[in-house]
Amino acid sequence: MRQSDRQNQQHFFSVQSLLIALLFLLPSAAPSVLAWLIPLLAVPVFLLFQLNGNDRQTMLLLRNGLLTGGAGALLLGAEEIFLFSLIQLPLAWSLRRSAVERKSPAAAGGAALAALALSWLTFWFCYGILSSSNPYTNLLTELQDSLAQLAEAYRTSSAELSAEMLYSLELTTAWLRQRLPVLLPGLLTSGLVLTVWLNMLVSSWLLGKAGPDKAPWPQYRCWRLPEQLIWLLIVGAGIAAISTDSVQTAGFTLAAVTALVYFFQGAAVFAHLLHRLKIPALWRFFLYFIVAAQSYGILLLTVIGVADIWADFRKLAQDKQDSSQS
User: Fold this and answer.
1) Cα dist. 95→89, 113, 211, 309 in Å?
2) What pTM was computed for the model?
3) CB-CB neighbours of 3 under 10 Å
4) Helix (H, G, I), strand (E, B) or coil at 163
5) CB atoms within 10 A of CB 100
6) What is the pLDDT of residues 123-182, one digit of tens each?
């Protein structure tokens, strides 16, 4: 018993468990500065599973770290933020299971999205019951009020804006407030998809640095979506164009999420091109930033991602290189 107690104490105060406690506590300690860490908290948990290899031991380390972090959040009076950060745990576990089962990046991403969406909905459902409120309705009202306040703020500072610009701004904010109930579900779902993609991308890159045998998926430039996914984009866009009310909202959400996923595929094609051209890493980062900062660049990569279904740009690039060498 004494040896077992000593081992449990060592696990409880291990470097890994303390690091988990710190990472999950930071957003609670300074939410205005470090809240952006919450969507990426699945990364350290997934890395811990992958690098440790022993799931049972990792669960023990994770439990001890979260207990320590939870105690710190209670002392800070920020237990709500800490509990919200725990929705990343099912995402990390889903990625771990996909890695063990050797699923493709697309299949792993789909399973991770389902896990994250379920944990996200469960949290807000419980929060709504405990607070006797509707979190979605509250968010929608706050966003609409913020748009109205933005328009009013620009109107009061009319000395800096022309009458035409003010009128255009008022029309834009009014349109956004009217269409926000249709747009918001797609934006929220796209946020979940973006969270899954970022966690997979960062985790895969870090594990690749740790060793080729640690990375569960190939490099990002080789990621590819199943061809059948294009039908979701077609059906979603069609429903959004010809339907109204709730059906239109569902169509727009489906189209927006699928378009975002094809943007990721277009980014993979772009990364493949930069790799083929042997562009230095610093210049690659600069080019990624330039493309992501431009709305036309995002649209172009989305179109490239869709076109890659038929054109298969990365295979064509390989064929051209092989033919030039032969």
Assistant:
1) 10, 10, 18, 25
2) 0.87
3) 7
4) helix
5) 12
6) 999 999 998 989 999 999 998 888 888 777 777 765 566 677 777 777 888 888 888 888
